[in-house]
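Q: What would this complex look like in 3D?
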Amino acid sequence: MNEYKALDRKILISILDELQYRYNEFKSRQLKLDMSRGKPCPEQLDLSMDILKKTAYLSADGTDCRNYGLPDGLPEAKKLFSELLDVKEEEIIINGNSSLNLMHDLIARALLVGVNGIDRPWRNNGSPAIKFLCPSPGYDRHFAICELFGIDMITIDMNNDGPDMDTIEKFVSSDELIKGIWCVPSFSNPDGINYSDETVMRLAGMKTKAADFRIFWDNAYAFHHFTERPSGVMNILNACKKTGYPDRAFIFCSTSKMTFAGAGVSMVASSESNIKYLKKMIIIQTIGPDKLNQLRHVSFFKNVEGIHAHMAKHASILKPKFDKVISILEKELGGKGLASWIKPEGGYFISLNVMDNCARKIVDMAREAGVIFTKAGATFPYGRDPRDRNIRIAPTYPPIDELTEAIELLCICVQIACINSIIEG
Amino acid sequence: MNEYKALDRKILISILDELQYRYNEFKSRQLKLDMSRGKPCPEQLDLSMDILKKTAYLSADGTDCRNYGLPDGLPEAKKLFSELLDVKEEEIIINGNSSLNLMHDLIARALLVGVNGIDRPWRNNGSPAIKFLCPSPGYDRHFAICELFGIDMITIDMNNDGPDMDTIEKFVSSDELIKGIWCVPSFSNPDGINYSDETVMRLAGMKTKAADFRIFWDNAYAFHHFTERPSGVMNILNACKKTGYPDRAFIFCSTSKMTFAGAGVSMVASSESNIKYLKKMIIIQTIGPDKLNQLRHVSFFKNVEGIHAHMAKHASILKPKFDKVISILEKELGGKGLASWIKPEGGYFISLNVMDNCARKIVDMAREAGVIFTKAGATFPYGRDPRDRNIRIAPTYPPIDELTEAIELLCICVQIACINSIIEG
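A: Here is my prediction, written as structure tokens for the whole assembly.
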């Protein structure tokens, strides 16, 4: 098939006519679909129903999980999840139901008090705003935290093996105000790519002007593969130990997309020294996490193999949905030179890059026809996609027939907007 | 009985001999009791076991509580607890398992971003430390939050009807850096007193130099009475509406001491405008609270009457413990002029004031004999009791025979330390 850019204007207009007809037909169906967020579907949530039936309240060592105590989490939860993340039990804290909460609070605390080993708060009296590096497209809620706290965001391009390391190294080596970077290293949101070993080692070992520079390693999708269990992204804590910056990284993870999105268990892993410091802070912040829910989770999963077996069930629900999206994209958009995408082997998203300056129009058109996609630009700092080309597709929640309809509509909108853009030159 | 101060030195020394004998006898028992924290006892936790058996996950309006969403809480939880606190549903947010967490985060946010309606963060570039008023004795964890964030604490004396309002009014009217006050208005920690209507109205209506002055109203023990249901402390939100400062107060409450101390539900109530603002902030902080636990709680309590009936069961467990402590205090210390206490009609603590400069010695002596009380000074800012006289007794957790032993020992220590102090002049 010829790329559409090479086609005659008349042919394009006749294609456009047909697409417009199909668009109107979709509109007449009065759809009401919300594809905007990466939510698990009810069938996925059903996989964990046994958690709700757990009524035990005594931990293995006899702790009454109904009462106060254990601000850093239940020992058996620490054991299970430290094994899962390949860190030591002294390197992990098990928290409430939201790892976003852990990230937000860690940054708030760094701004007010500083990080472990550096007494100076990130936000000093009289100093200008600090900065974060934001590989993009990325997770809008990471960026929202920076925006709330007035942290300047620097957009970093994503390559197929992680963020553009040359640019990152240049920035961090020269600017003391750059205090952190957001990373979604496994099946990244939304591109679905995995950081290569080289990327991980460069992040762990790069010279930073700021001694209190920290990596926020949001490993939300570390175990969310659709295929055979992959070797996984390199362990950032080990990498940081090797390079001599043991306190540089915080790993975040949760069971939100393993068990219940609203009622899972979250965790943060870092150097033993960072975790000790964090525990002191957490004791001041809260009476401790919900240990009953931690106990329910441990008793449900039993061990790391139990988690992997459970994740395979998720995969069998999600893979057909992702396959469906990819097949429609290939059928409708393949070879036309209007859009590109990566076929992810895990995670929660498919990232679609259309022709420049078309994403917003496409998402608007889809909304007019009753299908809500993630706001164009949302995957970039300040909600501004500099090329206005990225659209995040979240295939997990809708049933496959609704998903099919939504993606078919999306492809029509992509073609209409892009052809119009070609015609208008 | 004569007050001990009026007794002859020889008589005092013979009394001391006998006390020392009794103290040594206690020591020989090799006790190991921890009376330091206000934890519910297992019998109290058992009252809520039916919560663990709740397996429903759909809310009344069909929301799947297992999934994301509802960052401000489950509608039926908002309904139940807004009724309980006598506020509107638009004036409440239902959160995770720790109200301390809500307080900590509200202050962190105010320091970094500011409060609703005032764009300026509490902690401005270049400005000196802000200040909080701390009625004392008070709750050590309130003070720990201030200390962490470098907020200067001003100790305010407690009277029988609440904190010393004359002093408070003087401070807040003249110092723009005073941004908040900690209050435990019902069965205060540790005095067990209730704020009078006059105190509440004066707090609500006082002129403050700082427009962003806020009241942190920790109503942890609002429904924790041992007697007939009392009318309760005046509603601070209503009071603030009446005085024309509707945004001044935040009410905090939780079910930590109703259901499970480690796995309850927390809430914050304030003006509709404050709650709207707070919700915007919470959306950035977290993916939302554990709605399954909220659903469990609503389904367990059913309605406000259900909560009150449940609290009556707590009272029947706790009242004998408090009665026992008071009867020992009266028997051992009554009329001797060495110590004073208030007999609380609810709450979790009994506050014992001994002769000046004796509290630390007494707590040390008890520890040497195997009974740990709350650290002397802990009930004051920076852990420093200016008169070194306050000891917090937490009678809820130990079984009544252990409690009896612990308080008998305490009374011996009080007498030894105070008599020594009299003798030394």
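A: To summarize the key features: Chain A has a mean pLDDT of 96. The longest strand of chain A covers residues 152-159.
Q: Very helpful, thank you.
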